[in-house]
Specification:
alpha/beta, Rossmann fold, 17 helices, about 45% helix, globular
């Protein structure tokens, strides 16, 4: 049978075993932190010269001058025009759906006026410059370009700067085409912690931005954490996760493949199934055995399932929801009869895929909602990437002469209670009495 953990929620010590399964140390070790800090320091001190050096060293191609790191805009357009017809249609379809969903997320400014003429409100403005990191290691991710760039442009971001590593100097045409239809303004062939540092602090060629978004390896994640404060970041993401809640009536092959869909990301990905039907769990285990041999990334899938995967027998679907809310998964599939009724029990999940026909990969590519999601239980307090991550809120306060009389007295009392007399007097100067 498949080498995957089997658990039962009724067993003694179940929560301890679940904790061990979920444990993921997202904190980089000292050597990674030291390497990243040195790279950031070099970029801050030496700018383009350091960027060239790191690119030549880590990406395996010889860029002779800073201009070599810039991918011209016509290369993006050419990549789009040269795509095979089916790929171009699929990319356009996905982009259209992501944009349509993002348009509904835009926040609007608002205000209201009180009886004394005081106006209060909120003004919404987009970020000026955003940096987008696109991975270029084990695989190319044009979908990540769409998911990060389109919401930024819908929000009104004026300048979107994309960085993407090019191992061996090779660019991925799908990635460049995705940048073209997403409205990316400039692209640089740099990656790793050095790209993050360049976006955060700027070099002679790469402009400093206000926020950095996009996934990457442990060095990229560590660099994003290190530059946070200088710039904003979307999140520090851990390995990909999927949790499937099933009533035992879906094809076990479907469920097994859904578990594979995240396990093939990397060896640390997590795939978990909750079901009250013990026999169905065994059927899924058999399906895993039967289907694994045909997977291109079978070794990676097998490792992920062995180390971090689980098939868990639960008492009923209500208990499944409780366990799900504890896990707070990145991706949650509700492969059950009536997901619309059941979903009200779910409090913590990045994205919820409802019904037997809603496979998680549809959300990865083309359903419309963003695939940049909170991992490692952070869905307890954070949300998917969206247009709102590229907009800022400014409070609006315009106090009338009449309003200053009542608010000034209140502010004065509270300020003096805090021992801040200049605060108090600033408010009191506007008082008539």
């Amino acid at each position: 049978m498949a080498d995957i953990t089997r658990l039962d929620s009724s067993d003694a010590g179940f929560m301890d075993r679940l904790e061990q399964l979920l444990a993921w140390d997202s904190v980089s070790d000292m050597s990674v932190n030291e390497t990243v800090n040195n790279i950031i320091g070099s970029i801050r001190n030496d700018g383009d010269r350091a960027l060239l050096d790191f690119t030549n060293r880590f990406d395996g191609w010889q860029a002779k001058q800073a201009s070599d790191l810039s991918i011209p805009s016509d290369a993006l357009e050419n990549a789009w025009n040269d795509l095979e017809k089916g790929q171009r249609a699929a990319l356009q379809h996905a982009a259209d759906r992501v944009r349509a969903y993002a348009e509904r997320q835009k926040m609007s400014s608002w205000e209201y006026t009180e009886d004394d003429g005081t106006m209060l409100g909120q003004q919404i403005t987009p970020l000026d410059k955003v940096g987008l990191y696109v991975p270029g290691g084990k695989a190319a991710y044009p979908s990540s370009v769409l998911m990060n760039a389109i919401p930024a442009k819908v929000a009104g971001v004026e300048e979107l700067v994309m960085v993407v590593p090019t191992p061996g100097g090779e660019t991925n045409q799908l990635v460049l085409a995705a940048a073209y239809i997403s409205g990316v303004d400039s692209v640089f062939a740099v990656g790793g912690a050095q790209a993050v540092a360049a976006l955060a602090y700027g070099t002679e060629s790469v402009p400093a931005v206000d926020k950095i978004v996009g996934p990457g390896n442990i060095y990229v994640a560590t660099a994003k954490r290190a530059v946070f404060g200088q710039v904003g970041i979307d999140m520090v993401a851990g390995p990909s996760e999927i949790l499937v809640i099933c009533d035992g009536k879906t094809s076990p092959d479907w469920v097994a493949m859904d578990l594979f869909s995240q396990a093939e990301h990397d060896e640390d990905a997590q795939s978990i199934l909750l079901c009250p039907d013990k026999e169905f769990l065994t059927q899924v285990e058999v399906s895993i055995d039967n289907l694994l041999a045909g997977m291109e990334r079978k070794d990676m899938i097998a490792t992920a399932l062995k180390d971090r995967g689980a098939l868990i027998k639960v008492k009923d679907l209500d208990e499944a929801a409780e366990i799900c809310n504890y896990i707070a998964p990145e991706h949650l599939e509700l492969s059950i009869e009536d997901p619309k009724e059941y979903v009200s029990q779910i409090k913590h999940a990045g994205a919820i895929f409802m019904g037997r026909y809603t496979s998680e990969p549809l959300g990865d590519y083309c359903a419309g909602p963003n695939h940049v999601l909170p991992t490692s239980r952070t869905a307890r307090f954070s949300s998917p990437l969206g247009v709102y991550d590229f907009q800022k809120r400014s409070s609006l306060i315009m106090v009338s002469e009449e309003g200053a009389q009542t608010l000034g007295k209140t502010a004065s009392v509270l300020a003096r209670g805090e021992g801040l007399t200049a605060h108090a007097q600033s408010a009191e100067y506007r008082l008539k009495d």
